[in-house]
């Protein structure tokens, strides 16, 4: 049933794509038939698989570190008011910096490595997680904290048994958002001189004005996004089972 | 409140001082990391072209933002009214949304050229998506008891939308609009970097080619200041519109 | 109850008060949700200008009954719901006040009060004038421009009641309007409601969990049975009006209370046993 709900929109979209191209006579300059795009991927299977893996690795690395840093900073901010006052405005300001513009500088620092793209992905992910985790911690009923205290719970106990579980729904909301952002960071990071990856493929297709290759790269990006998003959603369903709906 | 402000300013100043000191003491070459004073100096001396570029990018961002916000909101209201269509469309929207908007930038350039249009389209696309998803979420997340109350007064779906759903969704819509401000600048810059003859993105691209990293930092500074300004403006608007929070 | 007894009962009611015709009449109203029979053959009549209170164990289908009378839910076929003797759609014909005040945080007191009037398409300015004139009666004078979040629980409830009164319908449905208030505020609100009712003279069906409240307010108390809900007992309250708190300790009051407590207790035990099984 869950699988059906996953596959059905995909099939519908595919049918819509093929149907629209055929019926509306859309020029292949805008939208080539889906068959042709899938054919292009099939023909260069290993190359697309490699791009998929590389970009996935970059995005996941940044995503995981970003998520951890987000939760840790939120914990620190929650417990130390002065730290929060001092650093949180900087966190907010950091997000108004068009990080993409940093791409060139980050590549200069780290070279053309996984680290460079992961750093950009990280920069995009840590902030939403910090904000939501902090909001989750702050929303905990102080009476519940007092109750646990009266049981003799330590700070660590309170964090593991009350604060973190209460904040998990919000943290996952942020993680789902961040999954997309991390991928965006990885793709754009590849535009600064990378030769492998979905972003690099997009750029090559643009320079050669190959619409089919561009759509093939976009589909590959969708696969990467879907993979990360799917894992996050699965973990969320396991961990936050008590929340019936968003 | 005042203490918080002081600490916030202190944090900012501390960061700048630390940055400046590290760069000077460790003698880090400017192409790796220039000192803040150097960035400000470069920005000042290149203020003419930087302002021109900033104005161009701001124009693209604001135009696309306006179009995207209106489209996103209208679409969300239509789908909030039409439940069956929504159930069909929403999963597809989620699939399309799983691709980062930036990945569509090459397509936009190919279709709409390297002028302002491709940037406006890209910005409208990302803002529209953000506002649409936030607005729809807000429009659907109303208290069913409140809907029942309005229905008992004889209100139809449109009445419920106007008097209950829209005001209820306003906080969520405003969050979407706030988040969109920064995204619109980023997307405009990204698209400019890939192909344009004007704007901050193009400035950055040019500077990278000429290995003039101080100018990259200067452009980033200008872009950040513009983003911060837009963000503050929309935040202020948000506080006025959502006064009951 | 047999049909003959039913008819007799109705004849008697008519004989008792010839002027009072049924404002609302439920005949054999049932409702089933999937496997759950929420209501089973509810028969209930409310005369014009009467204040009827309804009590019953939790989960007895009170809310279902309310939603049917408010027109938000259809009854199963077989029963009939008559307003002024006619079977019409009730949506928009009954002034309905839900348990929570459901005030809209972006509207001030006056604008919350005129919400229903606005939905009806009455001109806002005139509605606001009416509301302004009513504010004193509802203890809201001087608070017309306040927002809900600036008001106490009792005041919020009065705004919600004012909104219900502004929705000018002969039949009012109040669903535990004072349930969330503290005991003192609650007692004050009860007396105040009686005062308002004697002035505006509407027909009221009032749901509550509180037997004292039911007796104190009502012309008649109706006790619902455990699920599937039906009318277990109707008890006329012949206590004189206007009523004041001293009434709560009179033998007459306690006699009625004793009788109703027994009935409610019995039904609650059924629900309890069903839950335990």
Question: Can you characterise this structure?
Answer:
The complex is a heterotrimer of chains A (246), B (245) and C (277). In chain A, helix 2 crosses helix 10 (211-239), helix 3 (45-79) runs parallel beside helix 6 (114-138) and helix 3 packs across helix 9. Chain A folds into two domains: 1-31; 36-239, MetI-like fold (Orthogonal Bundle). The radius of gyration of chain A is 21 Å and the shape is globular. The mean pLDDT of chain A is 84. With 246 residues, chain A is an all-alpha fold. Helices cover 81% and strands 0% of the residues of chain A. Chain B has helices at 2-25, 36-45, 47-81, 83-97, 105-112, 116-140, 144-152, 157-194, 199-209, 213-241. Chain C is an alpha/beta fold. Chain C has two domains: 3-94 and 172-265, 3-Layer(aba) Sandwich (Rossmann fold), CATH 3.40.50.300; 103-168, no CATH class. In chain C, the strands form two sheets. Chain C has a six-stranded mixed sheet, with helices on both faces. The longest helix of chain C is centred in the C-terminal third of the chain and has 26 residues, at 251-276. In chain C, 41% of the residues are buried. Chains in contact: A-B, B-C. Chains A and B meet through helix 1, helix 4, helix 5, helix 8 and helix 9 of A and helix 1, helix 4, helix 5, helix 8 and helix 9 of B.
Short summary:
The complex is a heterotrimer of chains A (246), B (245) and C (277). Chain A is mostly helical and 246 residues long.
Count of distinct structural domains of chain A: 2
Fill in the CATH topology of the largest domain in chain C: Rossmann fold
Question: What structural class results from the helix and strand content of chain C?
Answer: alpha/beta
Give me the CATH architecture of the largest domain in chain A, please: Orthogonal Bundle
Assembly state (oligomeric) = heterotrimer
SSE order of chain C, as H and E?
HEEEHEEHHHHEHEHEEH
Radius of gyration of chain A: 21 Å
Shape of chain C: globular
**Under the CATH scheme, which class of the largest domain in chain A?**
Mainly Alpha
How would a textbook summarize the main sheet of chain C? 6 strands, mixed
> What proportion of the residues of chain A is helical, as a percent range?
over 70%
Which CATH class of the largest domain in chain C is shown?
Answer: Alpha Beta
Alpha-carbon distance between the two ends of chain A: 19 Å
Overall 3D shape of chain A: globular
- Average per-residue pLDDT of chain C, rounded, comes to 84
Would you tell me which CATH topology of the largest domain in chain A applies?
A: MetI-like fold
Residue ranges of chain C: pLDDT <50 for 5 or more in a row? 10-19
Beginning-to-end CA distance, first to last residue of chain C: 29 Å
Note the beta-strand portion of chain A. under 5%
Spatial strand sequence of the major β-sheet of chain C: 5-6-7-3-8-9
Number of helices of chain A: 10
